[in-house]
Amino acid sequence: MADAADNADTKLTMKHIFNAPREKVFDAWLDAKQIPKWMGPHGVSATADKLEAKVGGKYRVVMVTPQGTPAVGGVYKEISRPDRLVFTWAWEAAHNDPPGHETLVTLTFRDVGGKTEMILLHERFATKEARDSHSHGWTGSIEKLATHLAG
Fold first, then answer.
1. Given Cys at both, which of 30, 50, 80, 95 links 91, Cβ 3.0 to 4.6 Å?
2. Which domains does the chain have, with CATH numbers?
3. What Å distances lie between residue 87 and 19, 43, 51, 75, 123, CA to CA?
4. Is the pLDDT at 41 greater than 80, yes or no?
5. How many CB atoms lie within 10 A of CB 109?
6. Are strands 103-112 and 11-18 parallel, antiparallel or unpaired?
7. CA separation for the pair 10, 27 (Å, rounded)
8. Where are the alpha helices (DSSP H) in 10-127?
9. Positive or negative: CA dihedral 140, 54, 58, 120
């Protein structure tokens, strides 16, 4: 059985306040036309190859990086607009986690005086290194999302 330290190594929590209403922030996650404008760390572009915005629906995002074009996909587990979004996340090829290793992303959105506090919880990483790599990726994505929403 894993101890508390092991569990901490497999979870990533990030918080950001966007200068936009919850609905706008929430919708950016489920709109295939918006994904290329913000998904991926700086220097990486992305396209939503598939995006079925419904519980049980699947998504697939292809990232274009200097090292290649890794794809990530998963299934929407919960869609509660504009409060909460939960989906699985698994890379098709090795990307720190083993290919097909399924992690879980939970996003919560809270109104803070017309702005939106978003908390991202990404958990079930295979290793601390995979968690740290995703921390870099999510940081860039969140920064790009803030810029996109401000435009």
1. 95
2. 16-150 (3.30.530.20)
3. 24, 25, 12, 5, 11
4. yes
5. 22
6. unpaired
7. 27
8. 22-28, 35-38
9. positive
Q: Using one digit for the tens of pLDDT, what is the confidence trace for 107-136?
A: 999 999 999 999 999 999 999 999 999 999
For 103, residues 6+ apart whose C-beta sits below 8 A from its C-beta are 88, 89, 90, 97, 122, 123, 124, 125
Q: Measure the CA–CA gap between 135 and 137, rounded to whole angstroms.
A: 5
pTM of the shown model: 0.92
Q: What is the pLDDT of residues 46-90, one digit of tens each?
A: 999 999 999 999 999 999 988 889 999 999 999 999 999 999 999
